[in-house]
Design a protein that fits this description.
- By secondary structure, this protein is of the alpha+beta class.
- 29% of the residues lie in helices and 35% in strands.
- Strand 1 and strand 2 form a beta hairpin.
- Helix 1 packs across helix 3.
- The chain is globular and about 50 Å long.
């Protein structure tokens, strides 16, 4: 299955964001297996073809890269809660947590219970994407 590159150029106007341009193209190279420099060049070529010259961007990752786990959190001080979430990530993810970049989002419900949603992305995927996004040397 081919990878896709979808993009949107936004501009802030009067406190809101306005869509200026959007595009969607198929990538011929797989960002996870092809040479990072070639992937970066292919992405740059698609951006150039779409007339996009922005220097700053936000990158959205494919959902299939994400591992998720949810846990009810006990009332702990912040340091202990971080340790608790680290242990829960080690239990909840099907791979070694050191191979993942993990973040969490916490919420409280009206019943007084608190939960954390943990998301882990394979570190190698992010490193390859980072290498592909660097300007050629």
């Amino acid at each position: 299955m081919a990878s896709r590159l979808d993009g949107v150029v936004l501009r802030r106007t009067d406190g809101s964001l306005q869509v200026q341009q959007s595009f969607s193209v198929a990538l011929t190279l797989d960002p996870l297996t092809a040479d990072a420099e070639l992937v970066g060049r292919e992405i740059r070529n698609h951006l150039d073809a779409a007339g996009i010259r922005e220097r700053n961007c936000i990158v959205g990752l494919p959902l299939k890269w994400a591992l998720t786990a949810q846990v009810e959190t006990p009332k702990l001080d912040e340091a202990d809660l971080e340790n608790f979430l680290q242990l829960e990530a080690e239990r909840g993810f099907p791979s070694d947590v050191t191979t993942l970049m993990v973040c969490n989002s916490r919420c409280s419900l009206a019943a007084g219970k608190t939960y954390a949603m943990m998301v882990g992305i394979p570190r190698t995927h992010l490193e390859r994407l980072e290498r592909a996004s660097r300007p050629p040397s």
